[in-house]
Amino acid sequence: KMRIVVDAGHGGWDLGTVGRRGxxxxxxxxxxxxxxxxxLESRLGSEVIYTRQDDNYIPLDERASIANTAQADxxxxxxxxxxxLPSARGVETYxxxxxxxxxxxDKDADAPxxxxxxxxxxxxxxxxxxxxxxIEQSRRLAASVxxxxxxxxxxxxxGLRDRGVKEAGFVVLTESxxxxxxxxxxxxxxxxxxxxxxxxxxxxxxxxxx
Length: 210
Known about the structure:
Number of strands: 6
Order of helices and strands: EHEHEEHHEHEHH
Number of helices: 7
Helix content: 40-55%
Largest sheet: 6 strands, mixed
Structural class: alpha/beta
């Protein structure tokens, strides 16, 4: 059985982004994560581990260690985006290559400050070849999730942009030992998309795409 950790971003006091009409990212991504987990179990026969199943705040490093302790095969983190521009729309998927092989120069300085540079416990346990493989698998997974998200949602949602695959040093990715991605499934800050995201059907489609 493939063991997949599904991570709903934010939670508890950490609302994530808030739409102009009050949609909270933390609620949206929790529901999408639960829908995704059910699909992974029923269709792929995977074992799903959630970092949170209710409205609780779980620290970022703890999310990674849940995945590491479970020795998961994959890590999938679900988020929604925000921009000051109401016109900003689209989907994007992140992976990380902010790792340094054990003993080499620490690359944390390159990680975005918002992501909080990684402590790199992971690199201590993976050989340079394993690390390279993990980055490559994450990159491929991100590309495939991005294609699916954009391909599925753009049919239902004209004007949605394909914002592509990006790299970032998010703690949940840099501190987990298995291939992982973080998907930004839409902009809560776009009035067009906020309206869409309120619908059960659209949330189900996002889960399907993931």
